[in-house]
Amino acid sequence: MLKEPHPGRVKTRLGRDIGLTRSAWWFRHQSAALIRRLRDPRWDLILAVTPDHEGLQSRVWPVDVPRVSQGGGDLGDRMGRQFRTIPLGPVCVIGADIPGINRARISEAFKALGDHDAVFGPADDGGYWLIGLKRTRPVPPRLFDGVRWSTEHALADTIQTLPDHRIAQVSMLRDVDTVADLRALANSTQA
């Protein structure tokens, strides 16, 4: 899931620290690198884009990668729509602002769905960088209801919307929301 990378539309908290144009530039290049890293014959890569019309027509993303619109609503509405409309089978939804995502991490998540109904890739801030559903039964109608997005409760709240689901967790990763996150990322790649 990704947004068209315009200043003021993406990474606004990071933009307060480094400027909106620079944060949009970071997101655009991070997203492009992620798309390149995740091309793999083991799964279908689909970009869920917003805003809908502009994202579907964008020249920013590779033309050979299929796109669908996210539609309206909050993050839960938009992610839930992907789980309910993409053809049957296991699906993992990720954000585009997590530099640590690679093929091995995605493979780990799909493998976890072999004997679990759902999988999460937790983020160190209490949220998550990945949610996957096996989808061998209907998607819960209240999936994402009441989730406190952009808080340390997002993962726990989302798990509560999946009653009677066997849930796995994979590697914890850091997303980039602030300049402190960028610094931590730079320090981890230098270590």
Structural category: alpha/beta
CATH architecture term: Alpha-Beta Complex
Classified by CATH, the class is Alpha Beta
Please outline the major beta sheet. 4 strands, mixed
Protein model, in words:
This protein has 191 residues and is an alpha/beta fold. It has a single domain, classed as Spore Coat Polysaccharide Biosynthesis Protein SpsA, Chain A (Alpha-Beta Complex). Helix content is 38%, strand content 14%. It is built from seven helices and seven strands; from the N terminus they run E-H-H-E-H-E-H-E-H-E-E-H-E-H. The protein has a four-stranded mixed sheet, sandwiched between helices. Strand 2, helix 3 and strand 3 form a beta-alpha-beta unit. The mean pLDDT is 95.
Sum this structure up briefly.
The chain is α/β, with parallel strands linked by helices and 191 residues long. The protein has helices at 12-18, 20-38, 52-57, 75-85, 103-112, 154-160, 179-190; strands at residues 2-3, 47-50, 67-69, 91-94, 118-122, 128-133, 167-169.
List strands and helices in order, with pairings:
Blueprint: E1 2-3, H1 12-18, H2 20-38, E2 47-50, H3 52-57, E3 67-69, H4 75-85, E4 91-94, H5 103-112, E5 118-122, E6 128-133, H6 154-160, E7 167-169, H7 179-190
Parallel strand pairs: 1-2, 2-3, 5-7
Antiparallel strand pairs: 4-6, 5-6
Helix pairs in contact: 1-2
Which short descriptors sum up this protein?
alpha/beta, single chain, 7 strands, 7 helices, 14% strand, 38% helix, three-stranded parallel beta sheet, Spore Coat Polysaccharide Biosynthesis Protein SpsA, Chain A, 191 residues
